[in-house]
Amino acid sequence: DAKTTQPPSMDCAEGRAANLPCNHSTISGNEYVYWYRQIHSQGPQYIIHGLKNNETNEMASLIITEDRKSSTLILPHATLRDTAVYYCIVRVAREGGSEKLVFGKGTKLTVNP
Amino acid sequence: GAGVSQTPSNKVTEKGKYVELRCDPISGHTALYWYRQSLGQGPEFLIYFQGTGAADDSGLPNDRFFAVRPEGSVSTLKIQRTERGDSAVYLCASSPDRANEQYFGPGTRLTVT
To answer: Of A32, A60, B87, B105, which one has the greatest count of Cβ atoms within 10 A?
Structure first.
């Protein structure tokens, strides 16, 4: 299974862009990069995913490098409610189709007023 | 619409007792997952159901853990002879099919005294 590496913590000022990096140098060609976040005492929440093209939705943008060995999640205008642990996950596909998520420790993002 | 619900939200039990944790997935979601999250760690995969069958139970730590989904909707995670090390938040997630993002419930916090 491809592993990911994320910084343990980051800070961001409210209203500024938050750029969260992730390294996944052993990613396979058919594996997607997924981002989830977990606000304190809640279950994880899906944010965005991508294969090789950059992606954008109402929550965030995902930038994947051309070699696919790293990616960056961008929250364009961070708010205090974006304070959470952000997980970068490479989607695992097993024989039989189990698409389980393999979580690391993630990045604890703190948005400061 | 209603999200994934889990009951109870908190469960305190004595060492050696039997517990059942319930998950109600989003209506129509065929895939259902159980994860366990210890303090300060990311969620850890336990078992995955596709319909009524357990397609991947490789994450169950030992034979004290068992899960069922008899009608392809509600699932119950059963833990026999609980140990203090079983204390964690147990998360359930569902997905409309195995390729899509997973929607998580709020979790059940299990404390074994």
So the answer is: B105
CB contact under 8 A, A106 and B42: yes
**H-assigned helices in chain B:** none
Does A99 score more than 80 pLDDT? no
Q: Which pair of structure tokens corresponds to residue B80?
A: 């026999």
B105 CB neighbours in chain A (<8 A) are 43
Computed over every residue of chain B, the mean pLDDT equals 94
Contact B104, A44 (CB under 8 A): yes
* Interface contact A43-B4, CB threshold 8 A: yes
Using alpha carbons only, how large is chain A's radius of gyration in Å?
A: 14
CB-based contacts of B90, cutoff 8 Å, min separation 6: B6, B21, B34, B35, B36, B37, B77, B107, B108, B110
More confident site: B100 or B47: B47
pLDDT for residue B23 is more than 60: yes
> Is A97's pLDDT higher than 90?
no
Please give the residue of chain B at the shortest CA–CA distance from A92.
Answer: B99
Please tell me which residue of chain B has the smallest CA distance to A31. Answer: B99
Half-sphere exposure of B93 (CA within 13 A, CB side): 29
Distance from C-alpha of B48 to C-alpha of B46, rounded to nearest angstrom: 7
